Amino acid sequence: MESVGTVLETPARVLDAARAQRAVADQAEARILALACDWADLHPASPGEADAFDDPHLPAVAWDAPAEFALAIGTTHDAGARLIHQALELRHRLPRLWARTMAAGTPHGLQSWRARRIAEHTIAHPDDVATHLDATLAPLAHQVGPVTTHRLLHETLTRLHPVQSVAEHDQAMNTRHATIRPLPQPTGMAYLEATGDLKDFLDLNHTLATIAAILATQGNTAPLDVRRSQALGILADPHHAAHLLTTTPGALTTTDSDSGRRPRLRKQLVLYVHLSHTALANPRSGAGALGRLENLSLPVLSTQIRDWCSRTDTHLTVQPVIDLNDHLAVDRYEIPERLHEQTTLREVHCAFPRCTRPARTCDHDHTAPHAQGGRTCTCNLAPLCRRHHRLKTHTRWTYTTPTPGTHHWTTPHGHTYLTNPTGTHTTTQPPPAPPPRGCWHPDG
Predict the structure, then answer these.
(1) Per-residue pLDDT at 39
(2) Could you tell me the CA-to-CA distances from 31 to 73, 82, 103, 105 in Å, in that order?
(3) Across the chain, what does the average pLDDT equal?
(4) Is 0.85 surpassed by the pTM of this model?
């Protein structure tokens, strides 16, 4: 083990030392979680005594127990109590995640902070929800972020408790509000807080962006955020807003009223929704009652999607279904829309290790370069965000594609990673030899 401050003369030794220190730290953090459970076991709540966590799913802990443990590990009382609560949640209700956490520092271990973050989401939810998330997330927990965890939690709640989820949705719709609070400083500024229907807010966001762009064409040099705020003020004067939106070329996507054709509604809705047939036929059933709003990476109740699609004030664009198992190919460099869309739907996000930028915002890269004979086809395309596209093109990062959607990356210093639909995995396997032209299909 290298001592602190030792100068390591090669990049390989620096990386090896960093990995070793990371493993030691992970093992220590896991041990603290185990000790937190031991402390809770030694301090059960007596009959009639207050429970430190008031959690019916876990053993009762004496109300005053967390304070001393928190001091021992150098945290506040609240932080120490949260750690004990999360540790108990992991041990008692998330056994698969707990086992991986106790193996921290090994190739199959899980860092404590990741396990604790998942436990924080499952606390107080029904046992079947915790069990399902434990089984779903345990294999992937080393690469799942808070947004994904939160989304999976709500998907699970909706699937396992559909009636409750629909009721919560209906109740939430009754809490919509728009509140204006003046800021305490004498600046004449105020704060706007609002909750509402997602579709309405997407429409509002589009209108704010449109007016902000119009202001820029009129010589307004304020930053974009300032112009968006000014757009809200313009919307407060409907006549002014209507004048801007109807007299600025291209501001409204409508047809010419003199042509005799029906004008298109300005409010547009283009949703990339993945929805099962069951959800469409039985929107309030337990199975498949949830759709995925891909362009926002959000789960949405099928009843909400049906409501959006039934509105008469919105022009709805329905994207055609694309079979992700089809092999598409063209004999040119340019990627046609259908092939581009297939790659986007298949990959979801950037193919670089641990990158989560949505595929819909990425470049589409020829894994085997087209200039070197690479084919423009399903097998030989991958989404790369601009940063990682440049990294692959201009540095010594390389990758091959064993199968569509799976990518084998090699770093400049020879380390290898595998990315696939389940995330990023460290691997010691050498990269597979690419097929001719980057295409695995028989007709390639």
Answers:
(1) 95
(2) 12, 16, 10, 11
(3) 83
(4) no
